[in-house]
Amino acid sequence: KAGVTQTPRYLIKTRGQQVTLSCSPISGHRSVSWYQQTPGQGLQFLFEYFSETQRNKGNFPGRFSGRQFSNSRSEMNVSTLELGDSALYLCASSFAARTSGRSEQYFGPGTRLTVT
Amino acid sequence: GDSVTQMEGPVTLSEEAFLTINCTYTATGYPSLFWYVQYPGEGLQLLLKATKADDKGSNKGFEATYRKETTSFHLEKGSVQVSDSAVYFCALIVPQGGSEKLVFGKGTKLTVNP
């Protein structure tokens, strides 16, 4: 079974631009979560989608948005990029249909975004 | 709010040494607890998990026991190898808003020397 894939793996953007990152979950998984990883803040939750609906959102500004398609693939978009958005963006998928506290999340390799 | 506190790194050990990485948590309700590992240049891999008090998670020689009385989930391995060099993250799942989000500790970098 193929794992979680993320594209692109590396991106360099300029301040003020926008960027779209893509995530393909494990086949059969309907939940996709996004996390931002930085040296200073560590791993922080961005949002989670299930069946094309955003179920939960972290404490990030509205410049960060996402969506999920009918095939469970997900994209996240960051508009008006700032230097502080430079980070590793990780996508995770799980089979969770209901809140159980037991779902295992499987992570992709991440997209390394550098904003100059 | 819900949080995870891990011992500060980095941790440097010699091969075959005993490893302990401390992890304590604060959570409302009864979270599930996880250890993830991140090798250089890669995403996170689930190492082990425990979903209720006194559960012991184990994988690849690593173990951690869910201790509700001390709100802890310390990671241990009896004999580390060079290939165990990585960053280890303790995490909990908090059911929130009808979904689940992982709350992570800051991570502990482990280096094992031959």
Give descriptors for this structure:
heterodimer; A: 116 residues; mainly beta; seven-stranded mixed sheet; four-stranded antiparallel sheet; 11 strands; 0% helix; globular; B: 114 residues; six-stranded mixed sheet
Number of strands of chain B: 12
What's the number of helices of chain A?
0
Task: Work out the radius of gyration of chain B.
Answer: 14 Å
Q: Name the assembly state.
A: heterodimer
Q: Outline the low-pLDDT stretches of chain A.
A: none
Residues in helix, % of chain A? under 10%
The major beta sheet of chain A can be summarized as: 7 strands, mixed
Radius of gyration of chain A: 14 Å
Strand pairing plus helix content of chain B: what structural class?
Answer: mainly beta
Largest interface: A-B, 29 and 30 residues
Task: Please render the helix and strand layout as text.
The complex is a heterodimer of chains A (116) and B (114).
Chain A: E1 5-7, E2 10-13, E3 19-24, E4 31-38, E5 42-50, E6 53-57, E7 64-68, E8 74-78, E9 87-94, E10 106-107, E11 111-115
Parallel strand pairs in A: 2-11
Antiparallel strand pairs in A: 1-3, 3-8, 4-5, 4-9, 5-6, 7-8, 9-10, 9-11
Chain B: E1 3-6, E2 11-14, E3 19-21, E4 23-26, E5 32-38, E6 44-50, E7 56-59, E8 62-65, E9 75-77, E10 86-96, E11 99-104, E12 108-113
Parallel strand pairs in B: 2-12
Antiparallel strand pairs in B: 1-4, 3-9, 5-6, 5-10, 7-8, 8-9, 10-11, 10-12
Give an account of the 3D structure.
- The complex is a heterodimer of chains A (116) and B (114).
- With 116 residues, chain A is mainly β.
- Chain A is built from no helices and eleven strands.
- Chain A has strands at residues 5-7, 10-13, 19-24, 31-38, 42-50, 53-57, 64-68, 74-78, 87-94, 106-107, 111-115.
- In chain A, strands 2, 4, 5, 6, 9, 10 and 11 form a seven-stranded mixed beta sheet that branches.
- The model of chain A has no long low-confidence stretch (mean pLDDT 92).
- Chain B has 114 residues and is mainly β.
- Chain B has no helices and twelve strands.
- In chain B, strands 2, 5, 6, 10, 11 and 12 form a six-stranded mixed beta sheet that branches. In chain B, strands 3-9-8-7 form a four-stranded antiparallel beta sheet, with no helix packed on it.
- In chain B, strand 7 and strand 8 form a beta hairpin.
- The model of chain B has no long low-confidence stretch (mean pLDDT 92).
- Chain A binds chain B through residues 4, 6, 31, 33, 35, 42-43, 45, 48, 50, 55-56, 58, 90, 92, 94, 96, 99-110, and chain B through 30-32, 34, 36, 41-46, 49, 51, 89, 91, 93-107.
